[in-house]
Amino acid sequence: MKTIRITFPELGLIASTRAILGAGLALLLADRLDLERRKSIGWSLLLVGVLVSLPLGLMILGKRDEAA
């Protein structure tokens, strides 16, 4: 089994991007706000979450290769 060491700040970044993705997805699926506002906020949050998650994922995967 391979081990990857993640610092607390990295873990916080990962958790916050998951929260942003979840909030964006929830807004897209909810009926609380009017359709246009909900779609614009939801897609924005979802896009930010994806864009921030990609570099973090690559950083974590890069650490796995270094530790091996």
Overall spatial form: elongated
How many distinct beta strands?
Answer: 0
Radius of gyration: 15 Å
Helix content, binned percent:
over 70%
N-to-C span: 10 Å
Low-confidence stretches: none
Summed up, the helix count is 2
Task: Please provide the ordered H/E string of secondary-structure elements.
Answer: HH
Into which percentage range does the β-strand content fall? Answer: under 5%
| Class per helix and strand makeup | mainly alpha
Q: Mean pLDDT score, rounded?
A: 80
**Largest beta-sheet characterization:** none
Written description of the protein model:
- This protein has helices at residues 8-29, 35-67.
- It contains two helices and no strands.
- The chain is elongated, with a radius of gyration of 15 Å.
- α1 (8-29) runs antiparallel to α2 (35-67).
- The protein has 68 residues and is mostly helical.
What's the arrangement of secondary structure elements?
Blueprint: H1 8-29, H2 35-67
Helix pairs in contact: 1-2
Question: Keywords for this structure?
Answer:
68 residues, mainly alpha
Please outline what is shown here.
This protein has two helices and no strands. The chain is mainly alpha-helical.
